[in-house]
Amino acid sequence: MSVRAVRRHCQPLMARAQAGQARHFTWHPERMALVAAYVTSQIRERYPDLRVRPHGVWRRFEAHDIDRWGAVAQAHGLASGPCRLERARAQVDLAFTAALLGAHVLSQWHYRDAASGHTLMGSEAISVASLRWWSGGALSSDPHQPCRTDAVALERLLTPDLAMALQVGPDNPLPGLEARANVLRQLALALRAHADLFSRPDEPGLLRPGHLVDALFRRCPTGQLAAADLHDLLLYALGTVWPQETQRAGAPMGDCWPHPDAPDGWVPFHQVSQWLTYSLLEPLAEVGLTLTGLDELTGLPDTRQGGLLLDLGLLQARDRAFHTTRWRPGDEPVVEWRALTVVIMDHLAEAVRGELGLSPEQFPLARVLEGGSWAAGRRIALAKRPGGPPPVLLDSDGTLF
């Protein structure tokens, strides 16, 4: 139950793949140069100056190059310098909301962003929908302070209200709608259980994710915090939020699944909590809290990164039926695919830096992912399959993966 455990438990599966002994996949390192060149071409095309902003929900809000968060901040008086601390709290509130609500969308569900006129799909759709819903005050118990998420409003959340906000209907179904609503209701319980992190002495009754900013200032007088430590703090605080699909000794394990070749028989991924940690990097930095050791976080083993490896042949399924079978997140081939993705993303990041002539300090993993492998995974999926679905059929409610 830590981010440092992710690589430690994934690497033995990669060692088996390198020895030709993985149960479900074969590894083809001779294709690494091709994949690195493909990812590098995406980076150079999208960011000619190589100034790639970090991975996180903020990039999804910018779908079609529209600064939606900036417009919301301006409209609600959060853009000026004197509001810097409250803006960071609001951003953390929003990041929690968007990360927990939008972990995964595999269906044809779509969202029409009325303000821009664009119809969006996938992670961009649910991220933009989260922003619009949240900025309208849906998760604030104070109508005079719409741009926040608090425990009282979360407890009152009704699934039909979420369905209306996400434009869900018979012709636009979203798998896992009830599960997503329940995750947000469970967030209220987590906020109450960890008031030391999510309240302030001057507002003890107001529990919101954004008060984590104040808690981190109290805990980090130097203004520096290891990204892995922040992740593990989030994993601890959000322990009751995760669905109970996997348990060990009666405790929910979240995005952690069994595999016979892994240490202790378990492979942790912690995809949503890592996505949230990446997403907190920018708001925390804006108020003087710096996350160090970002590369202790891993590449996210999602359908874009993992799909890229399959579509370009770095990984190949031993059984071709893998691509036509509908899987659950805990099924052994899916767990193995994701574990291999975690480790291969480290190798790919090194190869991409070699193409760019940059060091890990100049181009950390978070920039490779955003620049990068996520965009490349989407592009190759669109080239290979109408609408761009991933090369794996998954039944997932989107709350963990």
What does this protein structure show overall?
The longest helix is centred in the C-terminal third of the chain and has 25 residues, at 332-356. By secondary structure, the protein is mainly alpha-helical. The protein has helices at residues 4-18, 32-46, 57-61, 68-75, 84-101, 122-135, 151-155, 159-165, 177-193, 195-198, 212-219, 227-237, 271-286, 303-311, 332-356, 365-384; strands at 25-27, 110-113, 118-121, 224-226, 247-248, 251-252, 256-258, 266-268, 290-292, 315-317, 326-327, 393-394. 49% of the residues lie in helices and 8% in strands. Helix 5 packs across helix 6. Strand 7 (256-258) and strand 8 form a beta hairpin. The two termini are 16 Å apart. The strands form six sheets. A two-stranded antiparallel sheet has the order 1-10. It is built from 16 helices and twelve strands. The chain is globular and about 60 Å long.
